[in-house]
Amino acid sequence: MMWLQEVADAIKNLLLSIRSIIAQQAEEDNILKKLEKLERKLQRCSTSLAEMQRKIELNFEDDGDEANISPRHPLFHKKAETEALKKQVESVKADYLDSVQYSRTMTLDNLRTRLPHLFLSLMEFSSASSQAIEAIHSQSSQ
C-alpha cells in the first residue's frame, strides 16, 4: 500500500504546482488588464494633447512661438500628464513581460520536476496492481 500513498502524494504535488501556475497566470492577466487600461488612457491623453497643440499652433501662427508657454498653461500640464502616462505604461509593460517570463519558467520547471515523479509513481502503482491481480488470479485457479 506504500505505492498508493506515493501516487497520491505525486498527484497532490502536481495539483499544487498547477494551482500555483494558475495563480501566477491570474496575476499576469491582472497586469495585462492594467496595461491595456493605461494604454487606452494614454491614447486619449495623446489625442487630447494633439488637439490642444493644433489649436494653439493656429493662435501662435501670427504672433510668435509656442515655446514661450507658461508652466501654468493647460498645454504644459497636458504634456506633463502625457509624459507621466508614457512612463507608467512602460513600467507596467515591463512588469507584464517579467510576469510572462516568470510564468513560462515556473510552468516548465514544475512540469520538469513533477511529471517524471508522477509517471514513475504511476508505473510502480500499475506494476504492483498487476502483480496483485496476477496473485489473486493464480490463487483462484488452484
Secondary structure tally, helices:
2
Helix content: over 70%
Large-scale geometry: rod-shaped
Terminal Cα separation, in Å? 25 Å
Oligomerization: single chain
Mean pLDDT: 88
- Point out poorly predicted stretches: none
Radius of gyration: 31 Å
Q: How many discrete domains?
A: 1
N-to-C SSE string, H for helix and E for strand? HH
Largest sheet: none
Q: What class would the helix/strand composition place it in?
A: mainly alpha
Description:
Helices cover 89% and strands 0% of the residues. It is an all-alpha fold. The chain has one domain. α1 runs antiparallel to α2. The protein is rod-shaped. The model has no long low-confidence stretch (mean pLDDT 88).
Summary, kept brief:
By secondary structure, the chain is an all-alpha fold. It is built from 2 helices and no strands.
